[in-house]
Amino acid sequence: MIKRLTWFVGGAVAGVAGTAVAKRKVKSVAHELAPANVARKTKERLHDAWAEGKRAMKAKEAELRAHRDGRRETLADELDAGDEVLVDGRPVEPGQVIVLRQVRDRVEQDGGARPRGSRRDRRA
C-alpha cells in the first residue's frame, strides 16, 4: 500500500509541476506573439536591415571611389612575376584574397600624420 501511495504522490507532483511549466511556457509564447510585440520586432529587424544596407552601400561607394581615384591597392600590385600566394598552405589566385589593413598601418605609412579636416573634406 505504501508503494502505491508513493507512486501516486510522485505522479501527482510530476503532473502539477509539468502543468505549471507548460502554463508558463504558453503564457510566454502568447506574449511574444501578441500583435504589438510582433510589430515591434518586425520594426527592429527592418531598421537593422536598413542600417546594414546603408553601411554596405557606403563601404562599396568608398571602395569604388578609391578605385576611381587610384587609391585602391590590390595584392596583385604587390607581387612580382612568379610569386605565389598561399592560404592555409594552398596556392590561390591573388584576386581571391582580401587584405585588410589597420588604420594605424596607414598612419605609419603616411609618416605618422593623421589627415586633418572634417570627414566631408576628406571624402571630396
- Broad structural category: mainly alpha
Give start-end ranges of low-pLDDT stretches.
117-124
* Order of strands in the sheet with most strands: 1-2
Beta-strand percentage range: under 5%
- Oligomeric state of this protein: single chain
With helices defined by DSSP (H or I, 4 residues minimum), what is the helix count?
Answer: 5
Q: What's the main sheet like?
A: 2 strands, antiparallel
Rg over CA atoms, rounded to whole Å, is: 31 Å
Average predicted local confidence, pLDDT: 81
For the terminal residues, how far apart are their CA atoms? 90 Å
Helical content, roughly? 55-70%
SSE succession:
HHHEEHH
Secondary structure tally: strands: 2
**What general form does the structure show?**
elongated
Describe this structure in words.
The chain is mostly helical and 124 residues long. It has a domain at 73-124. Helix content is 66%, strand content 5%. The chain has helices at residues 2-32, 35-69, 75-78, 103-109, 119-123; strands at residues 85-87, 90-92. A two-stranded antiparallel sheet has the order 1-2. The protein is elongated and about 90 Å long. Residues 117-124 have low confidence and may be disordered.
Keywords:
two-stranded antiparallel sheet; mainly alpha; 66% helix; elongated; 124 residues
Describe this structure in a few short sentences:
By secondary structure, this protein is mainly alpha-helical. The protein is 66% helix and 5% strand. The protein has a domain at 73-124.
